[in-house]
Write a structure and sequence with these properties.
400 residues, alpha+beta, Heat Shock Protein 90, 10 helices, 16 strands
Length: 400
């Protein structure tokens, strides 16, 4: 199980990292001086400038410790680059996200305090971080100290992009905001009409089955409207990035609602949606709309390409991670190449075979990206009993 989230735009981000003009592995005095200033600013023994690539993290500069290139599972900075804000953890051992991290847990260096700022290119992509570390907890830095750390980060980017170091000018977001406003309006207008029309239709229907179908359509249009609002609010059209709108979510009512919404439609398709099973006792910190989209996508994939009986189950795995399993009793056809599924936005098989029984749908690559954005993993498991699409979320997303 990985210990880090993956940016939604990871492929574009990695390409941007590889094209930074001044970003080489040769050390330069300027960057050592910036690291030393950062360490002194927050009274820490260690500071470094990290570069986060596809599978590893390496260092443009390090002071206070010897560090070699390391896998991303051993990195804190993979979390720092997920937003444009500083990431501060006063005591890593008390944070659910990091207490079992290999750099924090017993047997490792047992880091305790971390403060880092993402290094943001002029293109908007984040390629690494300037961060400080200590082996004892700290109080949270003051806003002035964090602002100074961000200024040091901007100096690093300016030096790498061969631009003079100066306070960052406010970014002109007029064009982006205009685009989002127009797109939002064009998407919301037909949705509002659909929603109102179905509501009026529901009020006129007498047959209970038809009323239930209309109610299901209403809920689906409402969900789509919420998803569009979330994407417009939490995305960046310049970089193709998507951010999570995290909230504490109870899985039991979530899946009960999905079962209620889809059971009749699945039945009309001639298939059975068995009652869901939820053995997860604690709520999770997730983007609720994204998780619903993932589960719905997997359900519809099973309806279109799977067996006759479908089910959803929530449980903990042997390590305490959360598993969401969507199963059906169908078998994958020979044309399906599971290895292709794990490539960025590649469909798992021949497009000409999309309609065959058991094929993998277009929603699976998107599901994988959304799961990885949560720091989780996604896989399709086949066996004689059927096919299982498994979403595995890290245990630190559990909330007591």
């Amino acid at each position: 199980m990985r210990t880090y989230p993956v940016p939604f735009n990871e492929d574009s981000r990695v390409t941007a990292v590889q094209n930074v003009p001044g970003l080489t592995r040769d050390n330069e005095t300027l960057f050592d001086a910036i690291c030393t200033a950062a360490a002194r600013l927050l009274d820490c023994p260690i500071a470094h400038i990290s570069v986060v690539e596809e599978n590893t993290q390496w260092y443009k500069s390090v002071v206070g410790i010897e560090l070699e290139e390391m896998p991303k599972n051993n990195s804190f900075c993979t979390h720092t680059i997920m937003t444009g804000m500083p990431m501060v953890v006063p005591d890593l051992s008390q944070d659910a996200k990091f207490r079992e991290h290999p750099m924090v847990a017993e047997g490792g260096p047992q880091a305790r305090f971390y403060a880092g700022v993402p290094l943001i290119l002029s293109s908007g992509f984040r390629f690494g971080s300037l961060c400080v570390l200590d082996f004892v907890p700290h109080e949270r830095p003051t806003p002035k100290e964090l602002a100074t750390l961000e200024e040091l980060g901007r100096a690093i980017v300016a030096a790498l992009e061969k631009a003079p170091s100066q306070p960052a000018a406010p970014r002109d977001t007029t064009a982006q905001e205009t685009f989002l406003t127009l797109v939002g309006h064009e998407l919301r207008t037909p949705l509002t009409i659909i929603h109102g029309s179905v509501r009026m239709l529901e009020a006129r229907l007498k047959d209970e089955t038809n009323k239930k179908l209309a109610n299901s359509a209403l809920k689906s249009s409402d969900h789509l409207s919420k998803l569009i609002n979330a994407i417009l609010k939490f995305s960046d059209v310049r970089t193709g990035e998507l951010h999570l709108n995290e909230e504490v979510t109870d899985l039991a009512p979530l899946i009960a609602g999905l079962h209620q919404d889809h059971a009749m439609a699945i039945s009309e398709a001639g298939k059975t949606f068995v009652a869901p099973v939820c053995n997860v006792q604690l709520p999770l910190l997730v983007d609720q709309e994204h998780i619903k989209i993932c589960i719905t996508s997997l359900l519809m994939n099973s309806v279109l390409h799977g067996g006759q009986s479908l089910g959803v189950a929530f449980a903990y795995d042997d390590n305490g991670n959360i598993e969401i399993r969507v199963t059906d009793d169908g078998q994958l056809d020979n044309h399906v190449d599971l290895a292709e599924l794990y490539k960025p936005f590649i469909v798992g098989g021949d497009m000409s075979q999309r309609g065959s029984r058991g094929g993998l749908g277009l929603g699976l690559p998107l599901t994988r990206r959304l799961v990885e954005l949560h720091g989780g993993e996604f896989e399709v498991i086949t066996g004689p009993e059927g096919t299982t699409a498994c979403i595995r979320l890290p245990k630190w997303r559990r909330r007591a």
